[in-house]
Amino acid sequence: MNEPVQEALPAPSDLCRELQAWDRFGAATIEGLLEVDGHRVPTYTNEFWTSKQREGHSLHEISYRACFKPSLPAFFIDRLTRPGDRVLDPFMGRGTTPLEAALRGRVPCGNDVNPLSRMLLRPRLSPPELGAVAARIDALDLSFGGELDGDLLVFFHPETLRAIEALRAYFLRRDAAGELDAVDDWLRMVCVNRLTGHSSGFFSVYTLPPNQATSPAQQRKINEKRDQEPPLRDVRAIVKKKSKALLADTSPLWRNESRSLARAAVLTTGPAQDISALPAASVQLVVTSPPFLDVVQYAADNWLRCWFCGIDAQAVPITMARNVADWQSAMHAVFVELFRIVRPGGYVAFEVGEVRKGKVQLERHVVPAAAMAGFTPELVMINAQEFTKTANCWGIDNMKHGTNTNRIVVLRR
Ligand SMILES: C[S@@+](CC[C@H](N)C(=O)[O-])C[C@H]1O[C@@H](n2cnc3c(N)ncnc32)[C@H](O)[C@@H]1O
To answer: Would you state the pLDDT for residue 43?
Structure first.
């Protein structure tokens, strides 16, 4: 019997040609050159994926601070991997890269220093049926006789808080006993995502968007200013509604396939500098976006989610570099680890957003740090949202300042 013929993956020069010729959203690509420490790396600026909010699979629709859109990993997964390949994000956040990998038939791998990430991703890799979710939440006893925390009462109605406390205790107890099953895992993920937000679809009174929990002191001020008190919420109904929305796009065919991909998944908690669970040369593609200097306060943003999951947010050793030199040296250590994990001929797509209003161009620091670890910097892709609308009035200079861009350094192992 003949072996199936595997389609060749594009060489870096093919990718460059595709980006040069890109006009899917009506504008031509602006080409440039990044010169740093003796490296000369071509840059391509255009709108490479749509800026529309809701463009991915419904399972992605959970919020996380500084997450990227599913179209970003999808772009690289489609071009630089084959079905069955391992795709990794060492700073996975809500797990956009590994989830998108699984949706495209690749083996999902993800790591984050915060254990919360695994709790957010794992249940979405192999989701339960809606009926099982509804039956479980309906059957749970949501009464809680303990004392209520005054700081939490600024967010939640006392009865809602009792239900939240009951759910929290249930998940912690089941987890500690090793009895947390797939339905519990799903319910915990949905509850985490419904804790706080700015509509009646959340357990809380109006507050910051769901990916940023404010402090109790700040929330007291918000309540005073808006003259509001936390209303009673139907926790069961909210959980069922969100589960239905998340599961809307799941097909029976994918559910079947996803089980084996979820079993093969490698999901770890720890620093990206040391992912020893992944063997050498085992990953075809990394798509990631690291913490950018000290711009996003992940510990503060996630304090309430961490509380719910029994995680001490202050004890999570998040990389918080204050200056570019420290950041670059932390990223160099990550590249050394990625060089071990990625197989020869594989790729890393390393996304850095805009920092300090575009004054710091982190891609300039990524290129030498990655090259020192052994990678070949192939190109920098700059995805500018709303690019097509404004392309006519932008020069290269305008691109440096001010727009909302993804800047992705593509490296080859
Ligand atoms: C920009 S976010 C990633 C978001 C992700 N791309 C998504 O779509 O959700 C950066 C993540 O890095 C994690 N992190 C910070 N320092 C880390 C470290 N040293 N090792 C691994 N993860 C780290 C943070 O917890 C945060 O989830």
So the answer is: 95
Could you give all domains of the chain from N- to C-terminal order, each with its CATH number? 12-114+254-302+317-412 (3.40.50.150), 130-246 (no CATH)
Query: Measuring from atom 27 of ligand 1, which residue has the nearest CA?
Result: 93
Find the 275 Cα to ligand 1 centroid distance in Å: 14
Question: Does the global pTM surpass 0.70?
Answer: yes
How far is the centre of ligand 1, averaged over its atoms, from the C-alpha of 3 (Å)?
A: 40
Q: pLDDT (tens digit, 9 = 90+) per residue, 70-93?
A: 999 999 999 999 999 999 999 999
- Write out the chain in H/E/C secondary structure: CCCCCCCCCCCHHHHHHHHHCCCCCCCCCEEEEEEECCEEEEEEEECCCCCCCCCCCHHHCCCCCCCCCCHHHHHHHHHHCCCCCEEEECCCCCCHHHHHHHHCCCEEEEEECCHHHHHHHHHHHCCCCHHHHHHHHHHCCCCCCCCCCHHHHCCCCHHHHHHHHHHHHHHHHHHHCCCCCHHHHHHHHHHHHHCCECCCCCCCCECCCCCCCCCHHHHHHHHHHHCCCCCCCCHHHHHHHHHHHHHCCCCHHHHHHHHHHHHHCEEEECCCCCCCCCCCCCEEEEEECCCCCCCCCHHHHCHHHHHHHCCCHHHCCCCCCCCHHHHHHHHHHHHHHHHHHEEEEEEEEEEECCEHHHCECCHHHHHHHHHHCCCEEEEEEEEECCHHHHHHHCCHHHHHCCCCEEEEEEEEC
Question: Which of 65, 112, 268, when mutated, tests ligand 1's pocket best, judged by the most ligand atoms within 8 Å of its CB?
Answer: 112
Q: pLDDT tens-digit profile of 314-366?
A: 888 887 788 889 999 999 999 999 999 999 999 999 999 777 666 778 899 99
- Would you state the pLDDT for residue 315? 84
Ligand 1 site: residues with CB under 6 angstroms? 64, 66-68, 91-94, 96, 112-114, 117, 271-272, 289, 291, 298, 318-319
